[in-house]
Amino acid sequence: MKIKEKKFTHLKKWDATLASCIRCGYCFEHCPMFKYTNWESDAPRAKIITAFGLLAGQIKPTPGAAKKLFNCFYCKRCEAACSSGVSLTEIFTDAKKDLLAMGLKGPGTTSITHMNCARCLICIGVCPHEARSNQETGIETDPSKCQSCGICVEACPAGAATIENSFGTSREELTKKAESFLASHSSAKAIVFACNWSYYPELQASQLPKSETKDNAYEILVNMCGGRLEAQLLMAPFLNNAWGVLVACCPEGECQHDGNIKAKKMVANLQNTLKTIEIDPERVQLVEIPAGDKALFQAKIDTFVDKMNTLGPIA
Amino acid sequence: MKSVDEPRLREIVGEKNIKSDPSDLYVYGSDASVHHAIPWVIVKPDTTLQVQKIMEYANQALIPVTPRGGGSGMCGQTVPIHGGIILDMKGMNRILEINMPDVYCRVEPGVVDDDLNLALKQYGVFYPPTPASSRIATIGGEIANNASGVRSVKYGATRDAVLGMKVVMPNGKLVNLGARTRVEASGYQLHKLMIGSEGTLGVVVEATLSFVPIPEFRCMGIANFDSLEDAGQAIGSIMSSGAIPSMLELVDSIAIKAVNKTMNLGLKEVAAALIFEADGMVKEAVDYEINKMKLICEKHHGKDLHSSYDPKERAKIFMGRKKLFPALSKYDDNLSSTSLADDMAVPYSKMAQMAGKIHEVAKKNNIIMTAYGHCGSGCMHTKILMDTRRKDQWQSAQKAIGEIYDYVQSVNGTTSAEHGIGLSKAAAFKTEKADSLWLLQTIKKALDPNNILNPGKLMQAPDDWVTATNLRYSVNS
Questions:
Q1: Both A183 and A283 in a single domain?
Q2: Is the minimum CB–CB distance between A36 and chain B shorter than 8 Å?
């Protein structure tokens, strides 16, 4: 099998790296996308195999193959976990550049703009990756720059910026998950929104026996970047009798999208709102968790649930 | 020929549980081995009934079916060399029951090993066969492969921990094999036959597993050696002394260099190191075992001996071992780490020679090989580091593999200690089992007369895997 080099000008420099990935698959466990779909073809290893196949001419650059590479939240947990030291997301980005040149666009998890865009240009200003620009045709996203943090989705006043393939991280999906948890658990008190960087529950692919899961006091929902949190999402659980909502995001200076700064402002605003309607502002709190510090995260959750127990339900 | 009734499969498992886009098929054509082949369709059943219906259809239409768990196999066990259906069992991932009074748990095959152990931990027990890939390996895959790992020297392999199972046979019939009791005396112990059968006899849809208490005390020790030979002799002496290690691992200089490079563990770069562990409920008993092993290491010129009960230090040493396989690919930027001749077992007294032989054969054939493994259970692992783009390196690797297994067989060792046979090790397996191959074939024929379950593996695999199967690498001439 000869390597076809003519089309993949960006990808070809990864030739040796793609061969050195030993395909152990240990990256699966860290990928939020795989956790959500439980399809191996959505796991990081599958993207590497696809990139290799494209470069080696073993598969054609079809929309199906492109979709795999355009679907990534750039949380980079796979990279952190890879002991072969493969720079997975850099490879995905280079593959995207080549696929874009061939007319394949995804969109996958990259953000797009709907027709109801009013061209207020807010999304261009908030994008931490300079992926959005004002073109004659409308507000365009460069998919090779977009890292799917979703900050534009939160910022867009018209609801025109959107990530179509949300893999369970859209406001509607998260609201529904929170609602169903609160309705089905008799001791349910809190919803914890965790960003994918500060924490991601590592072991959840398998379903535990009912006896193990029915009585949890809280549910952790992963919302990707904290910068994407919306007030409606954080307040929705209270409509379903939640006692409190906890937000976890990266510590200052550690968020690659500066989304934690936005999340902090959002939570502070909500606390003020709660005060005005005479609800204890501590029912919405934010905690900063360094990447993967499970012990600290658990301790913060326990403290929060204890606090909710002293406050009791909202009268 | 390639022909599968997709609408019928869709009807069985539902729209969301089937994939047939060429890009998905390509992805599901590999595992952690060197092989690659394209299936016709991927089906992910949720229930036993769906598995039965799929098998009924495949058996009648004569379509190959390859069951698949985490896809972490290193010998091509799940690579569908005859195409057909990939049965992705990760959809059946429920832990059904943790029964403390009767000391067993029941799980579906797609449950991930680490997930099970996390659930068991709250009861103070663990499922011990755990391989290094436990973060993604499923119980179904572990059963098919008879997986084992670092603690198997004390607690045994998967075969020792499975009490019973439900299996869908190639004709779609569901059978209950084994029992939920600790002992079962009579009959053919068919559940044990399924363990290690690499998906060629039936599809496991539920397993009843035993577990053991998590020990109160664990102590891990390390000893460095200036020669691989000394380390090998220490292993033999430890095991024949009656000591009961809960872990006894060998890593050679190449392996040490690789984990240092990727994980910055600061291990001393010596010719070989032994990592050993003892566990138990009483500290004095653990001390006794650890001291015994330390003394033996000293006798065989072991240096820098130290041991620790500290969980953080133990975790650091253990992590290096656990991530060794992927770390090896960082040994040299131009070399890839391949799972070839990756696993074997030899009698304890031959461990030292075996380790030396691996390095000798590698040198002779101009490739790099490492020697490491769960030596306490007689298990030796190697990896071949080579430039996978060069055809001549593949020829050298093939020659080296032949020489290694000739040696293994000459000292009454066996082809696979725990990674299985699949495609990569079939040639050596067939030589080793020459006088009983007809028995294996008779059993296969009796249970799977149409040869639809994972065909072309084990005794059916082609002798020359380099030319008879596709490699996942791009090999230039």
A1: yes
A2: no
